[in-house]
Design brief:
The protein is α+β, with helices and mostly antiparallel strands. Helices cover about 25% and strands about 25% of the residues. It contains six helices and twelve strands.
Length: about 260
């Protein structure tokens, strides 16, 4: 009878371990070696209040300089020849206004909201050529302040810059050092602001459906929040002696070891 009780208790512990594995494993229903079509590729598009840097280059540097906002700094107590400014050579950023425009030198207002980096570069290049300002210009556009935030049960919570046209939620979680063992994989929150509305989505990292989620590709100002599991939440309570607490399972393990010694002694 004692052996039956011991084996039953051991089975309960093993089943709990299997359940834990199902809770923390990513992409459990992924079809291995079975190619799947990618429905759409998300690309970051410009929005009001975004900042972008635009660099124009051509064979005539003095002409290109007319279209490049160069950030200059004046050092206190120091003067330089000419303007008295010390130029650090960095290109200043354009801030997109509430109507989606930037005020570009010589060309005036350009509507860039909704465009990608490449589309903005093509627009500037086209306008420069059409106005006969620059021949064969090379235009480079880069993000200046675009970022997303990762909070909750990750190793390195914080704000991370968007430096590429396409950043996925998996990239974002990797940048934050991956989820901790106490983070819920089945309901990761993504909070997004779009068109004057704040929307909240949930993503199940255990399923391949994450690849078709509307928030698979991260946008600027997204907030990714990883919720704690019951064990982690229980650790914040005054009484941690609950079914899901670490202390509870340590007590169970100690009891089973003692029971085993008694049964097989």
């Amino acid at each position: 009878m004692k052996k039956i009780l011991f084996m039953s208790a051991l089975a309960v512990v093993l089943l709990a371990g299997c359940k834990t594995q199902r809770e923390v494993t990513y992409f459990q229903d992924l079809n291995v070696n079975s190619p799947q079509l990618i429905d759409s590729i998300g690309t970051v598009r410009m929005e009001p209040d975004d900042q972008i840097s635009i660099l124009v280059s051509c064979k005539e540097p003095e002409i290109a300089a007319l279209f490049n906002l160069v950030r200059s700094q004046q050092r206190v107590g120091m003067t330089t020849q000419g303007s008295g400014l010390s130029n650090n050579g960095e290109t200043s950023a354009y801030t997109i206004d509430s109507e989606g425009n930037i005020d570009f030198p010589v060309l005036g207002k350009l509507h860039v909201a909704g465009l990608t980096k490449q589309e903005v570069a093509n627009l500037v290049k086209q306008r420069l050529v059409e106005s006969d300002q620059v021949k064969n210009p090379i235009v480079t556009v880069e993000f200046a302040n675009l970022a997303f935030s990762v909070l909750g049960e990750v190793k390195n919570a914080g704000k991370y810059p968007i430096t590429r046209n396409r950043t996925t939620i998996l990239d974002a979680i990797s940048m934050a050092g991956d989820l901790t063992i106490t983070g819920l994989r089945d309901s990761v929150y993504v909070i997004r602001e779009a068109d004057g509305k704040r929307l909240a989505y949930t993503v199940d990292l255990r399923s391949k459906d994450v690849f078709t989620s509307p928030v698979y590709y991260v946008k600027q100002n997204d907030v990714i929040y990883v919720r704690p599991n019951a064990m982690r939440a229980g650790q914040s309570t005054i009484n941690e002696n609950t079914f899901s607490s670490v202390g509870f399972w340590m007590s169970v393990g100690s009891f089973l070891m003692s029971l085993g010694v008694l049964v097989f002694k």
